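Fold this sequence, please.
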Amino acid sequence: MSKAKLEYIWLDGYFPTQNMRSKTKVEDNFSGKLEDCPIWSFDGSSTKQALGGSSDCLLKPVAIYPDPARNNGYLVMAEVLNADGTPHQTNSRATIDNENDEDFWFGFEQEYFIMDSKTELPLGFPVGGYPGPQGLYYCSVGGKNTHGRAIVERHADLCIEAGINFEGINQEVACGQWEFQIFAKGGKKAGDEIWIARYLLDRLCEEYNYYIEYHPKPIKGDWNGSGMHANFSNTLLRTCGSKEVYDKVCEAFRPVTKEHIDVYGEFNDERLTGKHETASINDFSYGVSDRGASIRIPIITVEKGYKGWLEDRRPASNADPYKVAARIIKTVNTVNVAVEA
């Protein structure tokens, strides 16, 4: 009889920034298939998702990946349900519209800082001081300016072994800051894979006595903050071939700027200042190849005759990808344009 370790991962009830929680269920002769993952439960009173007198919340498996760090292990992403089987109010995945979710493709660029648990500073920052100014860290090579490559490389390997559609890594503009990229067809799937990739990164850091800082502006002053840029497209954007359509889609975001910012991450006002490759949180703008705009129209999209995607640069590094995807889908779906075959 073989035994499998299923790590159930879910989001807790802290607001506005939820945390990942996980626990292990050991199953006999497990098939490795999602449909054979049982619904489980947990104590919601310990995660701000229930009261002590009625504390049981349910975990509904929604995605499964092999766990590359465990023998016969699996990573199970789960939605939180109420005891009656309805989505819990903290279940942001359930807010994504099912009707045309898979028509939307998302590429998330997850930035983050690697922090030393002893100093509580980013890697490369000396105690009581600062490293050299920004300029030489971005995509750098060599021990003087590159900090944390070993853990980043291991994380990439773990994600690829888990079957995540992991598309790349690079050191970012600030010292000790990195980024990974994930692409998926469907907002739900993209969100699942970002959360699993975050889980693998956080768990890996336990071995190094490091932790990952997802705060969008952990180092004040003349240092870049961290975002989770959302590249997105649907059939309209991929096939329209029209600058006018692209302008119409971008303009659809303008009247709902606040609604987007509300779900784009806590402390994002500290990052979206109009400096350090950001637009001001108080403005809305878009432009071709403009990293200082709210939404960037990639130059490749233009060169292909306006057949491609858009990049919303406003989501913070601590944003919930489910909420970001749900809001983008809702806004783009307000644009009613017929595309000729």
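Helices lie at 149-161, 187-205, 235-239, 243-253, 257-262, 299-303, 321-332. The radius of gyration is 21 Å.
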